[in-house]
Specification:
By secondary structure, the protein is an alpha+beta fold. Among the domains are: 1-70 and 294-314, no CATH class; 174-263, no CATH class. Helix content is 32%, strand content 32%. It has eight helices and ten strands.
Length: 314
């Protein structure tokens, strides 16, 4: 139904063809106590749902000065400004819209040149055995936004954090994709029975570029192509005159750009986070752990959608 709750929209389960309903939940940590819920049709955007949820929490608790931890959709400037103007605090990762690749490179440039020291961040899962989980530093960014017709200005802490586990996983996945791309490029020119060989250089080059795009290694591999033209004479036979047959052979070789791979690996695991909380109340390590603990709320949705209830697809 056009006005019903179940509507088609962006699907995290990669099933945009199935109607869905969207549920937002606010909990009090570390208890996991639900404070506010909201259900909207599945085609609604996430970003506008945060402010009403915050208002419900404020009404329920009657308290300000709380730390709201959310995902990157909570990082909309309007949401952050309303939280700050309401004397509350926020902690959330910044999306590629708030911190595009060139801005992240600017944040990381002093780290790579040695001008900016990074702080190792540890998690004490086992007493007496600290485990380093991340590293990073923080910087200040002045922000200005209009809230309810009034201009609000505040200093925001930008936390530039590198997850070591994510960096290791990303590096392993990148090397796997590079190997898969090289195998696919070699297979592109392998002669097999029933498999026609392309002898036109533009077509082979286009197919090779498509392989690089499929494995997401563009810029990490340099393609070198060459074409060999060979003339093979055909003997005269009876009334048939002598002929010359032209044969073409196309070869594409791939060379891994080690400097580009090193630079790409160097950026893995880095991400920007934002908070307006004070340093003496929320250190760099506490911010990382607070954000990671926020995934506890996702486990409830995981149980609902996965085993044992398995409510998807509906």
């Amino acid at each position: 139904m056009p006005e019903g709750m179940f509507q088609c929209g962006h699907s995290k389960d990669h099933r945009p063809d199935l109607p869905q309903v969207k549920v937002m939940l606010s909990t009090l940590e570390p208890l996991g106590l639900p404070l506010a819920t909201a259900g909207v049709p599945g085609h609604h955007a996430d970003a506008p749902l945060y402010t009403p949820a915050v208002m419900q929490v404020r009404t329920s608790l009657g308290q300000r000065g709380l730390l709201y931890v959310g995902d990157c959709k909570m990082a909309a400037l309007e949401t952050r400004a309303r939280l700050h103007a309401g004397q509350d605090f926020y902690l959330c990762p910044l999306s590629a819209l708030q911190v595009p690749a060139d801005l992240l490179d600017a944040y990381l440039a002093p780290v790579w040149t040695g001008e900016q020291d990074v702080i190792p961040l540890y998690h004490h899962r086992t007493p007496g055995h600290p485990e380093q989980i991340a590293e990073g530093y923080e910087r200040r960014e002045p922000l200005t936004a209009v809230v309810a017709g009034e201009t609000c200005t505040w200093p925001e802490r930008r936390l530039v954090i590198r997850s070591l586990a994510q960096a290791r996983a990303g590096e392993a996945a990148r090397h796997t994709r590079l190997a898969q791309a090289q195998t696919a490029l070699a297979d592109l020119q392998t002669r097999r029975q029933g498999k026609p060989r392309c002898t036109e250089l533009p077509a082979v080059r286009e197919a090779a570029e498509a392989i690089l795009a499929r494995y997401r290694v563009q810029g990490l591999v340099r393609l070198h192509s060459e074409e060999h033209v060979c003339e093979r004479p055909g003997r005269r036979y009876g009334a048939r005159p002598a002929t010359v047959r032209i044969e073409r052979a196309v070869r594409v070789t791939a060379v891994i750009e080690q400097d580009a791979v090193t630079a790409a690996v160097q950026r893995l695991g880095w991400r920007g986070y934002a908070t307006n909380h004070h340093t003496d109340h929320l250190t760099l390590t506490q911010a990382v752990l607070a954000y990671r603990n926020a995934y506890l709320i996702e486990r409830g949705f995981g149980r609902l959608k996965g085993q044992p209830l398995s409510l998807t697809p509906m």
